[in-house]
Design brief:
single chain; alpha+beta; 2 domains; two-stranded parallel sheet; two-stranded antiparallel ribbon; 18% strand; globular
Length: 92
């Protein structure tokens, strides 16, 4: 999931994000935070900023700045975070 903090009117932000998503052929969820309210809650102080959040909403790790997530190091970090994640219990 990506959260865009593009400034301006909501309509302008939607156009900018849609253009980027279409150009890059992104297939994951892209949300808008035009007032930066969510960014402020997470202490975002630069872009891009990446957060790894578990199913309960706890931030497990974060990285500021560009990262090559498909590199050996990036994939290793993601694999370690996934292996340490505990599945949520469902009803019953």
């Amino acid at each position: 999931m990506a959260v865009s903090i593009d400034r301006g009117s909501e309509e302008q932000a939607k156009k900018v994000v849609k253009s980027y998503v279409d150009r890059k052929n992104l297939t994951f969820l892209n949300l808008l935070d035009p007032t930066s309210a969510t960014a402020a809650q997470y202490g975002v102080n630069g872009v891009p900023m990446n957060f790894f959040i578990n199913a309960r909403g706890k931030v497990l790790a974060f990285a500021s700045g560009y990262r090559k997530w498909d590199s050996k190091e990036g994939l290793l970090m993601i694999e370690q975070l996934l292996s340490s994640a505990k599945p949520m219990k469902t009803g019953k």
